[in-house]
## 1
Amino acid sequence: MSSTNHVLLSPAELAYLHASLSLTPPIRPDGRAPTQFRPLVAETGILPGTNGSARICFADGTEAIVGVKAEVERTVVGPEGEGVIVEGGEGEVEEGGGEGEAGWVEMTVEIPGVRDDDSGTAFLAAMLSEGLLADEGFVRRLWINRRFHWKLYLDIILISPPLSYPLPLLSLTTHLALLSTRLPRLKSEGDEDPFFDDDWAAAPYLFPRPNGKSTTFVSQTRPPITLLVMAVGNNIIFDPSKEELAVADVALAVSVTAGSSSSQAPSKHVPMDTSTEGRNLRLLSIRTIDPPSRLTPPGVANAANSAYGANAGQKTTHEAQATAEGEAVEGVWRAPRGGAKRMVLGALVQKVLERGGVVDEVLDALEGVDLG
Amino acid sequence: MDRRRINGPAGATQPPVFDDVVSQGAKTVSGRSRMPDASRKMYLKTGVTPSASGSAYLEMETSAKPGASGLKLSCSVHGPRALPRSAPFSPHIVLSTHIKYAPFATKQRRGYLRDPSERDLGIHLEAALRGAIIADRWPKSGVDIIISIVEGDQDRETSKSQGEEAWDMMNALAGCITVAAAALADAGIDCVDTVAGGVAALVQDGGADSTPTIVVDPIPSDHAKILAACCIAYLPTRDEVTNLWFRGDLPASDMDLYTHLVEKGILASRNANCVLTNCLMETIE
Amino acid sequence: MTTTAPTLAIPGQLLGPATRYQPGPGTHLHEAQLYSSLLGQVHTTAAARAPGPVKRLTKITPAPVPAELPTISVMPSSSAMASGGFQGDEGEGRSGGAKKREVLPEVGNVVLARVVRITPRQAVVVICVCGDTVLEAEWQGVIRVQDVRATEKDRVKVYESFRPGDIVRAEVISLGDQANYYLSTARNELGVVSAMSEAGNTMTPVSWKEFRDPETGVTELRKVAKPQ
C-alpha cells in the first residue's frame, strides 16, 4: 500500500517535523507555503499511438505517464432497452446523448514494485475513476448511437518508484491526458454501424475547448482533479511530501471539477481581481486516506528512559509502560489515535473549495500547458 | 481465474429478468416509507464463529417491500497472532481487512477472487478501523478481519439497477464497519471507541426540478435519483470521524449542503452505534 | 472507590478522571479521562499490590505513583470469570468453552519455552507459556549465547546449556527483531526446568549445570534453573 509504506524517520525526527508543521505559519521541510505545490514539468501528446496522453514529472523525481485509448464497443442492450425499440420504434432520447454507463471507462494504475492485485492500486484507481464518473456528462459523451459507444481505457503508469503518495501526480497527469484526448469525428448517422472521418485534424476533443465561442450552452466541464490535503494541528497543508504525510493527523483526497461559469445561472458570480472569471467548482468525491502516521514508532520520554539515568532499577520497564499511557510529553512523538474532528474535516474541504484558492491556481497552471 | 475451485460457466449469460407484474412499463419508484432521519432496523450478534478470536453477524431489516432483501454480513477476526517470518518488524498490530461478496450475494454473480471494488472496500474498512484500534498494544502481531457479504442489499423486483452499485457499496461499507467493530470488541482487541458506519444521501424524489432532500440510510431503489451520498465511520465518545467517503456532484459554493450531508451521515452512524452498544452490553451481561 | 466506576464496560466508555485512577490493562487515557478500551468487567485494585510479572493483558502494568491511586482495569468477560482475579490457572481458562484472550509476551515477563534448535551462537525456542497463560499462538524466541548466564559469559557454550526439546524458563529482555523475542536465562531461577536424556528418559537436576538420567546414571550438561 503506497500510503502506508514505511517511512524511515526516527521518533525524534517525526516529533520535530510535527512541531514545525504545527507552527503558525507552518514551516515545511522544503520551505514551501502551506498551499504551494511542488514544481512540475508537464507535456501532452507525447504518445502518437494514443487518443490522448500526458506526462508529468515532479521535481522530486516522480514521473507518471497516462495514455488514453478509445475503442468502439457494441452496447449491450438490456431487456428494457429492447422493449423500447419494439414498442415505440423511436427512443425517448435523441439529442445526441443517451445514457452512459460506468463500465465504459476502464482505469488501471500501475506502480512499479507493487503487485498488480495490491489493494492500494485498486484504491487509487477507484478514487481517480470515481471523480471522473461522478460527472454524469462525461460518460454521456462516449455515446455514439444506440448500438455503439466508445470504450475508454485510461492506463496510468508511474515510471519512477513512488517516492511520495502518488495520488496528486496521477490525478494531474490523467487530467492533462483527458484534456488532450480526441475522438475521431463521426461520419455515419443514426444507429448504423459507426464510420469515422480519417482526418485526425478534424477530430474533436473529448473535452471541448472554450476558445472562440465561449458562450455556448454546452456545459464545458473539465476533467476532475484530485488533490491531497492534510491537517497537522490546525494547519492545512496541500500536496504533502512523504515525510509530511508521515506526521499527518488526517489526510483527505478531494476530487473537484470546474464547470465554466457560463453554463450555470450566474447566481453568485463574484468577480475576481484577476482576469480569471470565477470557476464554478463542483465537489465530486472525498476519501479519507489512512495516514501512515498511525504506523510510526513511538518515542520514549527521557523521564522513562533508563539510558538517561531515570528510574534505574528493576522498576524501569513498568515505569516506561505507564508513561506510554500517560499524557503526551512535549517533543516526544506518539502515533495519533482515533479519527479527525468534524471541524477539521470541514475546514479541509472548505479550504479546497475556496473560491480563488488552490484549485483555481492548479487549474490555471494546467491551462498553461500546451495541448498541441 | 482461480483453478482450485469450481468456477461458473466461462461464457457469461444474461440473468433471467422477469417482467414486473406490479409496475408494468413505467419504472415506479416506491418511495421511502421511513422518516428521513430513521435508519433501517438492524440485527447484530457477536460470537457466532467459535473458531475465530472474535466474530459478529449483522443483518439489515428488509425494506417494506416483500421480495427485497436486506444486507447480511458475517465478520470474523483472527488474531492477534504472530506475523509471518518474512514480515518486517512492526511496533504496532498489523491490520489486514478482507471484504468479499459471496458469489450469490448480488444479481450479477461474483467470482471467488476479490475484484477491484472489493479491494477498494477493504481499504476503506482498514482506514475506518485503524483509527479506532489502539495499535501499539499489540506489537509484532497481526490481525485478520474477514467479512463475507452473504447477501447484498439489492432490490430483486426492479429489473433495472443502473448505476446503483456505487451507492450499494456505501451501504455495504457502513454495515461492514459496524460489524467489524463488534467483532473486534469480541476478540478483545483494544479500541479507543466503538466505531460504527452510517450513510446519508442527497436524493431527488420528484422530477429534475424538485428540491433535493437529505435522507439517512438510503436504499437506492427507493429514490428516483441520488445526487450525492457519504459514508462515515464515527467514534461517538470522542466525536471523531475515522473515515469519510463522499461521492456525488455538489456545487462547491454550497458548503452548507455538504456539511448537512456529513451531519446526517454522523446521525446514521450514531443510530448504528446504539445497536452496537446494546449488542455489546448484552454480550457481557 | 468503586462508587462512580461502572461494573461493565464497552470500548470507549468513560471510567473516570485520571486524577482518581491509574490506567490499568484494558483502559486508555484521553484528555485526562480514563476510558475503557475493551469489552468486559471493570476491576479496581488498590495500589498496594506488588507489581510483578502477573498475568498481563496489555502493555500497561500498574506503576507506583506517589499518590498511590487505585488501578482501574477492564478484563474481557470470559477470562475474568475464569481466572477470578489475576492468578487463575490456565486449566480453568480453557474450561467451559470460554474463549481465552490472546496475550503477548512482553519485556520483563518470565516465560516457559521449548528449545527447537541450537547453533553455536544462540538457541532458538518457541514460547509456550507467558506468565500464567498458555499462549495460543507460537511465538519464536532466541536465547543468545551472551544471555545464557550472568557470569563467565565468554565461556558459555550453547550445546552445554540447552538441547532441543528442553523446557526453559526465561525472561523476555527485548521484543527483538521481526521474528524473534530475545530471552535471557541469566538468573539462578532461570534455565532448563525439564530435560530428556539421550536415552529418552526424563532427567533430574543434580547441580547448577548438570542433569542426571536416573536410569542410566549418565549426566548431561545444562544451564539448570534453580528449583522453586
## 2
Amino acid sequence: MSDFMMFSLVPLVVAVIIGMTCALLGNFLVLRRQSLIGDAISHVALPGIVVSFILTGMLASTAMMLGAGVSALVTVAMIELIRRLGRVETSAAMGVTFTSLFALGVLLLEWHDATGVHLDVEHALYGNLESLIWFEGTGLAALFDPTALAGLPRQLPRVALVGVLVVAFVAVFRRHLVLGSFDPDFAASVRARPALVDLLLVSLVAVAAIAAFEAVGSIIVIAMFICPAAAARLMTDRLATQIAWSQGFAVLASVLGYVLAGYGPGWFGFDASLSAAGTIATLSGLILLAACVAGPRRHPAAA
Amino acid sequence: MTQAPPISEEVAKSPLAIHGLTVSYAHHPVVHSVDFVTPPGSLTAIVGPNGAGKSTLLKAVLGITRRLTGEVRVFGEPVEAMSRHVAYVPQRSSVDWDFPATVIDVVTMGLFRDLHWWQLTRRHHRQRALESLSRVGMEAFADRQIGQLSGGQQQRVFLARALTQQAELTILDEPFAGVDAATEKAIVEVLKQLKREGRTLLCVHHDLATVRDYFDHVLLLNVRRIAAGPVDEVFTERNLQATYGGRLSAVQLARLLEPADVAHAGSGR
C-alpha cells in the first residue's frame, strides 16, 4: 500500500488530470477541425522553454511557463502568417510551423548544452511521469497529514489548477464555444465574440500543454488532445454525450496505460517496465482505432 | 473626427439605415459607399450578380466583416448597441451539418442573447424554440440529428433559429439556395407572415423571376448601389442592365418584367 502511495498515486492522478483536461479541450478542437493545434503547441513548448533557460540561466517554472507561453503565441501568429502569405491550408501551415520550431528547439538545446540540467529531448517527449515520487506518502494517513501533503510533487497542484481553470472556461463559455464551432458567422452576429473565444481556447490549449509538458512530456499531451475526443465523436451525435465519452476514454487510457506500463511486462515474465507516457498514448490511439472500427457513428449521417 | 450630423426622421425610424458603407478585401473595394434606408415593415430583396458584394454587405452590417467606412444604424442607434434587434439567417452552406447537434439545439442557439452563462436551458426556452419550429413546419424533427436533414429542412431550421431571436429585423442570405419548391413556398409564407406582423426583412435573392412575387422593395447592388426603392418603380430593364452590366438577354428580361415596364423602359432607350 505504501509503495503505491509513494510511487504510483501521484503519477496516476497527474496522468488522469492531464488526460481529462486535454480531452475536454480536445472536443472543441476536433469540432473545429483544429486538432493539430494541440500537437503544434505542445511541440513548440520546447524551444520556448530552452530560450527562457538560456535567458534566465535556470529552470524556474515561472520563467519556463512564460517562455512556453510566448512561444505558443508566436506559433499561432506564425501559422496565421504562413497560411495567408503561402495561401496554404491551416493544417499545412501548422505542420511547417511546429516541426521547424521544434527542430530549432533541439538545435538550441544542443548548442547551448543545457543537457546537464535535466532538460533534454527525451525528457521533452516522454516526460517524467515515473519520477513524481511522493516520499512522504508512507500510508493512507499521509493523505490527511499537512506536512506530508506539503511534500507532494509540485506538478500535482499545478496540473490540478490548470484542470480547474479549463473546466471553468468550458462551463462559462460553453454556448460561445458551441456557437463559434458550429456557426462562427451567426456567433459574430449575436456578439458572441467567436474570434476572441477562439483565441482563449488556443491559449488554454497552450497553458494545458505547457503544464503537462514537464510532468508527462509532449507525446501524451498530443495523444490526449486528439484521440479521446476523436474517438468520442464516433460514439454519439450529441455533444454532451461526446464530452462524457471523451472523459471516460481519457481516464481509461491513463489508468490502464499506467498499470500496463508498470506491470504489463512482468506478466509476460520480463523484468522491465515501459514508459508510462508512451503506453498511455499508445492506448489512447488503440481506443481511437477501436472506435473507428466499431463506433456506432463512424459514418457521417446521410443527408 | 467631425461631429456626426443629426439623423433624419427616416433614419431614426428605419430598422436598418446604411450610410456610406465601404468594405474592402486587400485594398479592393467589394462594397463601395452604399447608402440604403430600409423602410420599416418592408420585405426587401438585395439583388445583384455574383461578386456584387451582397453577402459582404450583410456581413458588414452584422459586424461579421469589418467595414472600412460607413455608418450602420438600427432605429437611429449604432448597430453595435442594437444587435439584439437583428436576427440573421446565414447561407446554409456556411456551416458543417455533421456537427453533433439536434434540430432543437440549433434553434435554441437563437436564445443566445437571452441566456447568461449560469442559466440552464429551461422548459420555457425549449417551448419558445418549439414554437419557432412549428412555424416552419418542422416541430416533428426537434430531436433529429441535423446531419439527417435535407437541404430544405436545414434551411427551415435556420429560419426557425432566427424566429427564436424575435427580432424586429431579420437578415437572410440566400434562403432559397438549393431548396425544393415546397420549402421555398413555405419559407416565403413565413416571411410574408412576419411582414404582416410589422417586422422588417432584408434578403439576398438570386432568382430574378420571383422578385416581383415575393418582395415589395428591392436594392440593386453591384459593388455600388445601382438603385433602390419599391419593386414597381425600381425593378426596371434599365436598372437591371446597369446592375448586371448588360449581360441579361432580352428574353430573360421580357420574362422578368411586366409588359408595362418593358414598354416604359423600351421607350426610354
